Amino acid sequence: MSDALILGIDGGGSKVLVALADKRGRILRRSRGHGVNPMDNPNWLQELEQHLLPFRDERNLAAVAAALPAYGEVERLSVLQRDAIERLFPNVHRRVLNDVDAAHLGAFAAKPGILILSGTGSMAWARNSKGQSARTGGWGDLIGDEGSSHWIGQRALNLVSQSLDGRAPATALAKALFDHLRIDPSNPMNGLGDWASSVANPRADIAAISALVDQVALGGDKGAIALIEQAAD
């Protein structure tokens, strides 16, 4: 069918992107929402459905490819993810796979290679010439995710708190963080405590702080540079 359409779903810990495209790859419509990782967002299903429902009755929709975080890792959650896609799109070809597996397929066009991915979380995924896959990491922020943006953001918060206490040298990260969070620098404990107790999307918002670390590191701040080097290791 020459006018067949394909729906691509790129789910992650910080955001979900949905795009409707034709067979030539032209994007016709798209939607963006918050993260849909069932490991840390109790409202992941509602968030996913909210951004998929507008495409449910799309005429000429032939296939749906859903790259979802944590898929294939926890059986109970994987069943819920797969059921959601099947329920919303019962009459089209469907494929559900892990978001990092999808990233590998896209990066290497289904050929052998090793992908090291550092987003909100972190994971390495490899595929050989026989199509066999192996992975390391991807354990989530409570257990691992070393070197990820969340890992960097969390350690940046820790470094700033230590510098404010005098347990670590002063760092330009403090001012960058105060400006970013709109915190009064004269009362940082109140400001940071209020932010920490009311942040709407903790994983995504902490991960976003990693961008500040990059900026401050480029300015030569030793503490920020050390965090980036630790993340790389």
Automatic annotation (TrEMBL):
The keyword Cell wall biogenesis/degradation does not apply. The keyword Kinase applies. GO terms for molecular function: kinase activity. Coiled coil: none annotated. Keywords: Kinase, Transferase. It comes from the Bacteria. Residues 7-232 form the ATPase BadF/BadG/BcrA/BcrD type domain. This is N-acetylglucosamine kinase. It comes from Rhizobium leguminosarum bv. trifolii.
